[in-house]
């Protein structure tokens, strides 16, 4: 009941604020305030650094590849002092005024979220101890076969002991819409002595009426919810959104199961069995931090609170299938509360993976910006569910539908609801569309439909959620229809349909052109009275072939049209950020995953225990789960080392050996494909098995990211404000960050970049090969080198522009080891031979 009491208390405070007049003439908003004093995670690092510099001992940077996660966890005294500092500051600055503090951030950010007026926010911003004041902003949410498609059963799982131990000891934190703890994907049937809660995790399970005691176990080891910002806005609906970690949406349950759901859980939907599900790391532990909701999405203040708590609890990986609704304002995209909170999380050793966003296929459509965040785009895998309908004229039309077929070789009459109205039914022009969509059985004659195939229009009302397939299926059931067919209304242009579960024979015709052919056959088969033109007989017949059995003929992987594209969005302070985004692609289309028992995000899967969903939201947890396998094998890997292992081993070829393709248009996407570039797919398609044996690692530290931020013009005060660190030292341009990619947005004549590789395998000799981008010559030094285990080597790349280019061209650099290791990094360049003359 704790969550309910807290929500009630906040609501009462809000009413008190309104009654006091705060929101009457001068509207209050939520602001995120950060202070200059170091947060807990940074403070203890600074303290240790200070002691080591004055008390003797080794000097120099720590090897992040061997630094254990949460090696020395600080006590809570400093954090408690920060909370007292926040309260004291608010009392002093806003003495006698109304305000409401929502959160104190203390572990990875030192600050708080507060409901105040703009004038009060300005007063806070003027205080010397205040670093930054930012307005809160909104955010939104962006399997049975994918383990096989990724080669886990015969590859990564086998190498590390099988599915029974895959991911063991690793904690993945999910910032999403919550979780349904009753789902079998999250049970802990293993004996206590072989499935312990990791000692480094200190989170708790919030207990409420919706999330009772016993909801957590040795699999689901932590669960909290964060909604204070939403509550203060008066938009939180406790009946739909649940003031608890329980998932009333379905999205969070789905993503958690993709990354770490139990192995071998039967997927039964609409009474049909679609195989057995498994997460990528079925033995990893799950911690849930609910900050998004069905009714409204979420807000940055709540998300930052969730990140802060996850880091404090000791998660190893954070998975975010969420993106901002707009690009955050400020000097640069990177300086927003969420990305800066994640930077501090990375500093503590947490690997952060985020969905790229579903705003493709336009260039620079990324919703995940920063180099310390691992951004994942969506790719198709090879499994497809398809069925077809054979018409009475022997014409076959392909369709979609997780449904059985009609019996045997029999043909069944086709009937439209418009031609099956009861004699006493009154249907006007407005309601005829609704009837044609099969949403209401009441005006229809059961005798005309019973035993026949009902045909329904799929109009824009379905897209808007005003009409549903579920309601049409209920109509067909009530009228004893033998089957159902949905044809696409011509006004629904380019909308992509997904297979939908049906208990009766049925399918959806996704193509407007095929729908037109279907309707022409149906209408031409109608026999009418020559005089009155009234219908005498419906002559159209059809047979439906079932779509329950998957086939694996789809050309894959390929970049889906909706997957957001790079490069990183243009920032105000420099031409382009020389950072490749996305980092890579992973399965994101038509993914089976667990579904909340009360999940309402997809009407078609409501009440089911699994759902088939698409999006970059589904791609990100695939990578979070695979990262858990890497962390299990290499517990000392830094976040950038994990990112490098995933990136350098990614594949750029589809399963038939051709180049990975990218869909370029929303309408008829397969008709507008071309080979994918690094701005479509990053390093390529994730290769789970190879990532567990990368050979070489491109490692970056927190200090490297700070040096990059300090290179942005005018960023010094902002960096100091967020991190407590000044910009007095050397800076690093984005192109010189030690990333497993090279991106040069404007190559002016010549550019030299370097990368440092570290050997995490045995002694090996490497040969370097490369393909140059168009208009660019490339040289590498050394082109061949020996590197001992655990040692590092710097490689120098000289890029020379040979001709102008108005768009990016691409190449690739390969490092081939005599021990079989291969590290591949993409090269993206826009060359400008006479760039100096063009600048005024």
Automatic annotation (TrEMBL):
Domain Subtilisin-like protease fibronectin type-III: 736-829
Residue intervals of the Peptidase S8/S53 domain: 167-662
One GO term of the biological process aspect: proteolysis
Organism: Spirodela intermedia (Intermediate duckweed)
Primary location group: secreted
Protein name per its UniProtKB record: Uncharacterized protein
Domain annotation Inhibitor I9: ranges: 30-141
Signal peptide: 1-23
Xref: InterPro entries: Peptidase_S8/S53_dom, Peptidase_S8/S53_dom_sf, Peptidase_S8_Asp-AS, Peptidase_S8_Ser-AS, Peptidase_S8_subtilisin-rel, Peptidases_S8_3, S8pro/Inhibitor_I9, S8pro/Inhibitor_I9_sf
GO molecular function: serine-type endopeptidase activity
Keywords: Glycoprotein, Hydrolase, Protease, Serine protease, Signal
Region Disordered, residue ranges: 52-78
UniProt feature coiled coil, ranges: none
